[in-house]
Amino acid sequence: xxxxxxxxxxxxxxxxxxxxxGSIPTVQHDGFENGSLPDPSLARLHYNEIxxxxxxxxxxxxxxxDFEYVPDKGPVDRINFGAYRQEREKSSFQxxxxxxQFCGYGTQAPLDAIDFEAYQASNYxxxxxxxxxTYDGDKMLDYLADQGFPVEPTLQNNRYTINEDIxxxxxxxxxxxxxxxxxxxxxxxxxxxxxxxxxxxxxxFISDVIPTSDATLFQNVFGPATNIEQGTSYSNLLxxxxxxxxxxxxxxxxxxxxxxxxxxTMSQLSPATNFNEPRRxxxxxxxxxxxxxxxxxxxxxxxxxxxxxxxxxxSFAVFSKEVDDFIVxxxxxxxxxxxDRSGPDFAxxxxxxxxxxxxxxxxxxxxxxxxxxxESATVTGxxxxxxxxxxxxxxxxxxxxxxxxxxSVGDDTTQTFALEGLGDSQNLIFFYEQExxxxxVAFNNRExxxxxxxxxxxxEPVNVETYGQWDISAxxxxxxxxxxxxxxxxxxxxxxxxxxxxxxxxxxxxxNGSRYAFGIRGSF
Length: 524
What we know:
Layout: E1 6-11, E2 16-19, E3 26-29, E4 44-50, E5 54-69, E6 76-99, E7 117-120, E8 131-134, H1 137-146, E9 154-155, E10 158-179, E11 182-211, E12 218-248, E13 251-262, E14 273-275, E15 284-287, E16 295-309, E17 312-324, E18 327-337, E19 363-373, E20 377-389, E21 394-405, E22 425-434, E23 437-446, E24 449-452, E25 462-464, E26 467-477, E27 482-489, E28 496-499, E29 506-510, E30 515-522
Parallel strand pairs: 15-19
Antiparallel strand pairs: 1-4, 2-3, 4-6, 5-6, 6-9, 6-10, 7-8, 10-11, 11-12, 12-13, 13-16, 14-15, 16-17, 17-20, 18-19, 20-21, 21-22, 22-23, 23-26, 24-25, 25-28, 26-27, 27-30, 28-29
């Protein structure tokens, strides 16, 4: 009960058991079995913060002019040309405050002052603890202020403004002719773009890392604000060539070859570095990269379409992409000078894993995650699809995509590049549409794929296991204005599982169960 943008920790230190032998790891906390709770007098104060969120302001101004010229005669049927101008400014800032005076769970919580009490949730997720303690977060902040340790949010020195200006010119030609009595349509052209980027930021860098009353938690100390200004520019010429061949009235063959670019997001271009809460032997940060280039792709595809009935379609396509400078987020070591370091070395006297003193010397090495341009890669694949309607209102839609890349993450822990998000997929929909009745059963399946090359902590990848979901729906139109409907989502209660490099390294398990809805819709 702390409102928005709050993180207040009042907890009870207890022992637990971890079981990783099953398909889903489980954690059992001592003292929380069968709806029971530990003695509330064991509650202790810990960490507090307000406003650990960023506020973004994004303004885009666009101007474009498109023209078309149709010649009276000649091989060219149509000429399109035009210009485009975009000016975009994005700013991001953070108002944040933290307090670690009571870190380490060494101070007993003022139970009455913060309304610390037991709470039991009804109709809660099965298998999870449904009885726990709560407290009033606003009263917690009042208590801290009364003790002389208020949490006061201030504007942080990790804010930035990025200006991106894009100017483009394009022209394409469309012409048609017959090839052995088969109509042919050709469209070819190019787009030329110039991109100018200016980046400005105010950044305070780490100047010291000091211990707190919690042996596992350190505190960042920041130096004075520094102005950062950077800029870059690049240009691209993107040709395209498209051919449509009508083999028969109901059969079409298409070919396309074109170049494309994907620009980095504005957030990826940020020069600001966000230093995370420092832990023992785990100093981490994240940030952007103003030097990012757009990733470019040389593409071609061939497709065949057969409209074997008014409502029936069979299609097949093969494609290839040659990708350069693909953007991935990687973790690396960055050294920061501790210009304000004055305290003694830190030695954790209560830590069983303590090997050497920490917080020593004139610098600290942080593990920092930043987007970077990767290597080159090739993506190939094919797509096949069928849409078929029967005469009695029944029908189905089926499609599948198979995709492959010449680079993938395997057992090699030194590999730092692969294409994220690539995976085979299949979709199957059975439907019925007759007068006022509609019904649908759908199966959507996505094979396992690489979600992240780098998880941002230790440089290890994150994979998503194969996930298939069944959905059902039905509706009846009472009249033109009202419809009765029923639907079920994920009716087989599939789980979304993410793993590390190997399948037995569980990263996360999402069990959202199934969801059902019944109701009536109206439109006027």
